[in-house]
Design brief:
The model has no long low-confidence stretch (mean pLDDT 92). The protein is an alpha+beta fold. The protein is built from 25 helices and 17 strands. 51% of the residues lie in helices and 12% in strands. The longest helix has 56 residues, at 582-637. Helix 14 crosses helix 18 and helix 23 runs antiparallel to helix 24. The strands form 3 sheets. Strands 9, 10, 11, 12, 13, 14, 15, 16 and 17 form a 9-stranded mixed β-sheet that branches. Strands 1, 2, 5, 6, 7 and 8 form a 6-stranded mixed β-sheet that branches. A hairpin with a 4-residue loop joins strand 16 (464-466) and strand 17 (471-473). It binds adenosine-5'-diphosphate and magnesium ion. Adenosine-5'-diphosphate binds at residues 211, 213, 215, 282, 295-298, 344-346, 354, 469-470.
Amino acid sequence: MATLRFFALKELLNRKPKYIDELGKLTSDYFGKYVFDKGKMKKYLSKEAFEHVMEAIEKGSRIDRKMADQIALGMKAWAIENGATHYTHWFHPLTDATAEKHDAFIDIDSNGGVVEGFSGKLLVQQEPDASSFPSGGIRNTFEARGYTAWDVSSPAFIVGTTLCLPTIFVSYTGEALDYKMPLLKALAAVDKAAVDVCQYFDKNVTKVSSNLGWEQEYFLVDEALYMARPDLMLTDRTLMGHSSSKDQQLEDHYFSSIPERVIAYMEDFEREAYLLGIPLKTRHNEVAPNQFEVAPIFEEANLANDHNQLVMDVMKKVARKHHFRVLFHEKPYKGVNGSGKHNNWSLSTDTGVNLLSPGKNPRTNMQFLTFLLNVMKAVHTHQDLLLASIMTASNSHRLGANEAPPSIISIFLGHELNRVLDELEESVPDKKMTPDQKTSIKLNIGKIPEILLDNTDRNRTSPFAFTGNRFEYRAVGSSANCASALIVLNTVVAQQLKDFKQEVDALIERGAKKDEAILQTLKKYIKETKNIRFDGNGYSQEWVEEAARRGLSNVSSVPEALSAYLSKKAVKVFSDNDVFNQTELEARVEVELEKFTKKIQIEARVLGDISINHIVPTGVAYMNTLIKNVQGLKDVFGEGEDFQELVGDRLELIRKISDHIHQIKVKTTEMVNERKVANKEEDMHKMAELYCNKVRPYLEDVRYHIDKLELIVDNEMWPLPKYRELLFAR
Ligand code: ADP
Ligand code: MG
């Protein structure tokens, strides 16, 4: 019996690295070639139109219709010169991918001829028939109109022959149906709140930007093997597979030399990314075999997130050229590391200051401590929201499952910074400060950069770590749209900065000096956030127990985590900062619950199919060869006294196989029944709970028996590529 697995393995013997021809050119020669950036706008737009766009980008003002026509004209000219024939509004619906609907530039002119047309109206706004995108009930299908509107702050780009315009996606009644619109709102909220707080330290600050540097982890798998694994094809992860005798124990993959076929792939997608103006900087092997990472230089958060989504798309496309498939799933393989997407996040001013970087004197350092502690306080107050923002069916395999970080949000500061905060807490008196005390505190604060330099120790197990000049939100999943985490982070920080300002102003009103008021408030925050500071091993059982004693939240169920979005506190913080209204929050939770449910549903179906169509028949076939063998031996030797001894091991094996097959069938049937019960549930939250608690556990139960069978059954007969092949073949 020749299985697909062996065809796939044979295919692999002929694989060669596929190098691209155009290497050798300087990256800077072609970087951003397909982006309608400032330089190109200047060239292709009238002065008036150019200034109009710049103002819209910088001040958030509206593009007026007349100008839009002019801009469209210039943009079209550039796009056509670069081979574009179509255009699309490119947006981030609440699915796992970006969306696009292409329209040709063609128009019929007054003489009935075909011309290349593209008007300002089409540039600025579109109404795609978007009734199939998730909306959580905001758009009834009879009122399917949602519209997309151009986000001027992220430049247009060309992919293939299509001009892509980054856009937001909203319902006809104005509610957000995507990730971009709330992200832009959260960024505006943090901008305003941070500028206000900056005024204590520097009156020249008029704008604060949020920055994102993502680190994207991914797995590569050969496409032939991928095709022979229905679970990978349909769910992006392996639903079965016994661990390989060797996987990551020796840690010999991490940072080792990159395999040739993989390097060729990386160079290819990096080149595509450079053409699109995405500043990719770092590439390396990750901890698990066949796991890799790519990271750019950080950018303004909205742009950086567009770039992340775009690069994921590019990586998927280019992978096919190299006979690879790229897996962004958080846990494609059991027992080896999963994939995350660290979100390196900071705030910076238009005066060129990174607010999360210690400065050079007491004043800038006080500003640094202010922002550091406000972020900590925001994370402390809204830990449940931060968790909700990253909890999905796939990421929950990383969070709260074994061999993974727990679903507890804690903050790593490192030894030195912890000491700084402890000292500050000690040194600031509760009553009025003497001039001597003030001087000494300021002196100490002034010394921070010297201490921190080279002292930003690392802790890979912390979900939210301070790393010298930024926070790294590490719990974000590799398949996520970073916006989900960034919306929450920027909103809660915005709110916290407003609260801070109010507290400080109140103290000043009561007669405190500004510095004193700030220090008193920071001291209070140090006390209040103490329990979220943790520098130890975040993956350990001790931490789970310790965190419970500290009263930190630890929720590993996805539906439960998502319900945090609907708490009174959450509704208030989102609506006060004009990011989400209650309807939008309810819709979003509904969409997330539905996504979660559907994913488990698909996994359960796929597992059922593979069990019954692939695994059980294979087990039976192998069992039959054993039975034949026993029968043959009986014919040869007769059923004498030592016959039992002769075939005892095979009888034992037959019994074992039979038992596993039986269990697979029984458990698969039970799983189907639980699904039927769950599908009858009308309340989305309850249905998700049922899928989480009643259906999902069967995935592991069934898998257990399949993985045991894999160890027993003749290797030649096993139909699915094994872990050793998926993880090491390349
Ligand atoms: P690591 O040592 O964690 O791998 P890197 O130095 O490779 O970190 O940086 C990871 C990411 O963090 C990169 O995208 C980098 O541009 C980004 N980064 C660095 N400084 C900042 C900052 N101040 N704000 C946001 N992102 C930053
Ligand atoms: Mg990092």
